[in-house]
Write a structure and sequence with these properties.
Elements: H1 8-32, E1 50-51, E2 59-60, E3 68-71, H2 73-76, H3 84-88, E4 94-98, E5 106-110, E6 113-114, E7 118-122, E8 125-126, E9 145-152, H4 157-160, E10 167-173, E11 182-190, E12 194-204, E13 209-223, E14 239-253, E15 258-275, E16 278-298, E17 301-317, E18 322-338, E19 343-356, E20 364-377, E21 381-392, E22 396-408, E23 413-424, H5 428-432, E24 444-456, E25 460-482, E26 485-510, E27 513-526, E28 543-553, E29 556-565, E30 568-569, E31 579-580, E32 583-593, E33 598-605, E34 624-633
């Protein structure tokens, strides 16, 4: 049966009512089944996970010193039909703003640092927009992702180099861990005439070969991106979006010592946006590809050679048409060697960044790097030390380092502290963005202190982290407004800024119930002694929090959450006209295994239809939903 767009609204309403009805019935049925399900059949939740981003070697989260967060495949299922940005903005310590719907231009901030100061990796390869500054996570589909690791703080600078001053987000594509052959198809519908369909296949054999293929198409009529107060850009039409997304991963275990593989993620999209009365749109291509060879010459010791290539191409048709084609090529040789006590990590890297556009005078630069690291992880004491040297062809050389330690008071209680030196060179976007370029921008440097106390048991994991950072020559885009209308601006150095705060996370699993949340308090202020001294940095709310409760069985996973965002200023001037008021959102999501082969996913956002904005003059969606069905062949 094929539905016309005119009948889609009724169909979508029926879908969501059916979805919620099934959830209610299934929850009741699942409760009745509790008496006949053995303990061995109940879901096991692993709180102590393995991460590689924090140290560049597999390490338990209970041994990592810096604050770390893992978004696994089970959690990502709740974001079917949405983007990676939709996932991240619900994580602790992350605030954001958007210029309209889920695909529109946005920016995010992690513990007070701008997205340009957060390094994004896809399967170990740098992924960022040289034209926009940060990574275009609003265009990466969540359904192509296996897991996401989030490393908070500046310890990543001495491991990954410039761009990681505020943290690292590493995205792992599907196919990195294929256990058995299977094939699946997915179809979904959502609010604003959203349609998603896709297919994926994974193959594994006894010869050590694993292949994963995935493709999807996502489209929506969207919402009107601007509000009438945005007199320069306002256009009352809806601003749609469509994308085609592909991923592939091939891994081959040659023998006990050697393995090789390759992976790629590619997205081609078209986004409509408002630019006065003109119908404006942006065509974009985003992607990353990598190939590697891994030699495990001793137990716990290995050497990995990797080449990566990423692209971010944008062709905009509007009142201010432009073309930006950027690419990054990266080669790295990273080794780890098991020592009598701890593990040593070492590596060399080469990065070439180039952009093809008439808007920028400079269009190419390269960075040559070398680093050393040492990690100790045991039941009594954890330690991490790193030092890295970067030679930037545009800004010269820089050395960053990190030192941290943690002590296990008992098997459940741990305390620790760390210091990290951060560095970030201005991006092409920093220098040339806005109505006036600023070629005299200085690189940013930072001193970052962090301390924590952590309590883990079989039922829960709770961590309280305090941090204080001083940033010299912080690069901030200073916008000029006439009321709510943007009239110009450029990037400028703030001589000194201070960012301090606390982050509390707590996750509990009691029988089949999951609950917990996070709370973040931060003060991110200009401390330069200049005109804006004492003012809050933009898009850095003092308070942010999320609480959730969930119920999980082998066939059912349902979760309700409340997300709160405090007031914040959109401009460093802290003008009243640039104040974004606080808001709170209720969401519910879940998955249900209808049969052994058929599963359903549904999400209902902003249940109370809260009217709010994240950027002055730009719209947000009201109550919205998405529901999908997936059929698997094993």
């Amino acid at each position: 049966m094929v539905l016309s767009r005119s009948s889609s609204t009724s169909y979508l309403r029926l879908c969501i009512l059916s979805a919620l009805g099934v959830f209610a019935v299934s929850a009741t049925a699942a409760t009745n089944e509790l008496n006949i399900v053995s303990d061995n059949d109940l879901p096991q939740v692993e709180l102590d996970k393995i991460v590689v981003t924090a140290t560049r070697t597999p390490t338990k989260t209970s041994n990592v010193i810096a604050q770390t967060r893992v978004v696994d495949s089970e959690e990502l299922q709740r974001f079917q039909g949405q983007t990676v940005m939709e996932v991240l903005k619900r994580q602790p310590g992350i605030s954001y703003y958007g210029n309209g719907g889920m695909d529109k231009k946005n920016n995010f901030y992690m513990r007070g640092y701008d997205s340009k100061q957060i390094l994004v990796l896809i399967d170990g390869i740098r992924y960022s927009s040289l034209s926009a500054g940060g990574a275009t996570l609003n265009l990466l589909p969540a359904d192509q992702i296996e897991r996401i690791e989030i490393l908070y703080g500046a310890s990543g600078s001495s491991i990954y180099g410039a761009g990681a001053m505020g943290g690292v987000i590493q995205i792992f594509t599907k196919g990195t861990n294929v256990e058995k052959s299977n094939f699946s198809v997915t179809a979904g519908v959502g609010s604003n005439d959203q349609y998603l369909y896709g297919a994926s296949a994974q193959f594994a054999n006894a010869n050590g070969t694993a292949l994963s293929l995935s493709a999807s198409h996502n489209e929506t009529d969207g919402i009107n991106a601007t509000l009438p107060t945005n007199s320069f850009n306002y256009n009352k039409d809806d601003d749609g979006f469509e994308s085609d997304n592909f991923s592939v991963a091939l891994n081959q275990r040659i023998n006990e010592q050697w393995s090789a593989g390759a992976s790629a993620l590619y997205s081609k999209s078209t986004s409509e946006f408002d630019s006065g009365s003109q119908d404006a749109y942006s065509d974009q291509e985003n992607g990353s590809a990598q190939a590697f060879m891994d030699w495990r010459y001793l137990p716990g010791s290995s050497l990995k050679l990797q080449y990566g290539h990423s692209i971010d191409n944008i062709d905009t048709s509007s009142n201010f048409s432009s073309v930006y084609d950027s690419k990054q090529d990266q080669v790295s040789l990273v080794g780890q060697h098991l020592l009598p006590v701890g593990q040593g990590i070492y590596g060399i890297e080469y990065l070439d960044q180039s952009i093809d556009t008439t808007a920028y005078d400079a269009d190419d630069r390269d960075v040559t790097s070398a680093f050393l690291g040492y990690v100790v992880a045991n039941n009594q004491f954890d330690a991490q030390a790193n030092v890295r040297f970067d030679d930037n062809s545009q800004y010269g050389d820089q050395t960053t380092y990190n030192l941290g330690g943690a002590y296990h008071i008992n098997p459940n209680l741990r305390i620790g502290a760390s210091y990290a030196k951060g560095f970030r060179a201005p991006t092409f976007y920093d220098i040339y963005s806005g109505t006036e370029s600023n070629i005299d921008l200085d690189p940013e440097t930072s001193d970052n202190y962090e301390a924590f106390i952590e309590y883990d048991t079989l039922l829960q994991s709770t961590r309280l982290t305090g941090y204080q950072n001083t940033v010299d020559d912080l690069i901030n885009f200073v916008a000029r407004f006439d009321g709510n209308t943007y009239i110009g601006g450029n990037s400028q150095n703030i001589e000194e800024a201070e960012i301090k705060g606390i982050s509390l996370t707590s996750d509990w699993v009691i029988n089949d119930y999951l609950f917990g949340g996070s709370y973040d308090y931060q003060q991110a202020k200009d401390s330069s002694g200049g005109f804006n001294d004492g003012n809050f940095l933009p898009i850095r709310p003092e308070n942010k929090g999320l609480v959730y409760i969930g119920y999980r069985l082998p066939s059912l996973d349902i979760r309700a959450e409340y997300q709160y965002m405090d007031d914040y200023y959109y401009s460093i001037s802290n003008a009243d006209s640039q104040l974004v008021e606080s808001y709170g959102l209720f969401n519910i999501s879940g998955n249900y295994q209808l049969t052994n082969n058929l599963s359903m996913t549904a999400r209902l956002n902003n249940i109370t239809n809260k009217k709010y904005v994240t950027a002055p003059g730009y719209n947000t969606d009201g109550t919205n939903f998405f529901t999908s069905l997936t059929y698997n062949w094993f």
